[in-house]
């Protein structure tokens, strides 16, 4: 199944689940996939909230994230799973950032998280292109050592 089709199927199933199932069934392992025509992972794993910050031309500075509640204003919040790929995230960013839709646009992805001393670190994890396919497209958040609570910073170039 193509990445876009898989993503749309996941999104549709999540919307259906959120409107039809009690929260315990959505987030817990109380149901079985046999009783619902839904893939098992939806019933066993809750989606995570991914806070995505976009900037044109470069990444944000790590200091931009230092004060909680005063993160950069250009934020998009996405509910997803750790197996989401950079291509899926690219397609979502393209929906909200017109600059990312340009034919020659490149999107650089970086995780932002506090180090052991509490200072924020920005670690570049991959690059995708708006129109073409690249090797980084298939990298999933989990493969890149994403931790729940990390921010995702996207430089649109």
Automatic annotation (TrEMBL):
The keyword Signal applies. The keyword Signal applies. GO terms for molecular function: transcription corepressor activity. Pfam families: SAP18 (PF06487). InterPro entries: SAP18 (IPR010516). GO terms for cellular component: nucleus. Residues 1-28 form the signal peptide. Keywords: Signal. This is Histone deacetylase complex subunit SAP18. It comes from Populus tomentosa. The lineage of its organism: Eukaryota, Viridiplantae, Streptophyta, Embryophyta, Tracheophyta.
